[in-house]
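Folds abound. Consider this:
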Amino acid sequence: MSATATPGPDPGRQPITAEMVKKLRDQTGAGMMDCKAALTEAKGDFEEAISILRKRGLASAAKKAGRSTNEGLIGHLLSADRSTGILVEVNCESDFVARTEDFQQLIADVLAQIEKTGEAANDAWLQDADGPVRKRVAAAIAKLGENMAVPRFVRYAGKGCVGQYIHLGGKLGVQVEFGGVTPAILGREEFTTLVKEIAMQVAAANPIYVARENVPADVLEKERGIYRAQVAGSGKPANVIDKIVEGKLGGFYQQFVLPDQPSIRDPKMSVKDVLAAANKALGAAVAVTRFARLKVGEVAS
């Protein structure tokens, strides 16, 4: 009676080490798990592993990673009830590629991933080389032959009514969240007009802060220091200098704080005045709670 032989190690298979996985990742730009799987399938053969990754559309990202991505589009998604909105910047190298169906599908897929991930979607998740977005981008790079990146996104959900405005053929996107919106005013023309006007204001005037209270104290002190230096040696009394400084600070607010900005529709009115007029017409107390403005290429990799 013969004993059953215990299978020995496969002489053609090399043990897959972390160093091998890292080396393959550095050469191909593919995710760690994809590299490990390819090396395992190739029994440790590097060239074969690269071929496997190339066949799966995952191996050409690294070769193009250093090329500038100053083109692209702002993807946007808004829920039917307007409680959730997403903007995402997707970059590529040329406007030609940005207009292709494959690139449009990439944007749609990235938006879907952000929507699916919900509150867990953050910058670390977005840039995870083994995450769904980076993998999807790598596949698009392999297919379209250009470097691509998804540097940032904005997601608002469950805290108000979201409005969006897309400008310059998709090169600039704005998202604004409003508080105090009731079902009774959601569909009214006055509110629709207000949403568009505020979003266009953000697009054109590029405010930084949603209210004076949101300006950091150190920023205000720095501005005051600059204004005081401008009037130093004027010989004016301290109380007069204080008034001059506060007056100049008003100019700072008008430039960077949304409610203080002159309305782009009627510069004689401030955005605060526009909101007040709309609220009077609506019989409501609508307020802007936050906003975001994404322009293609501002933070391109």
In short: DSSP finds 13 helices and six strands in the chain. Strands lie at 71-78, 84-92, 149-157, 161-167, 172-179, 287-295. The radius of gyration is 27 Å.
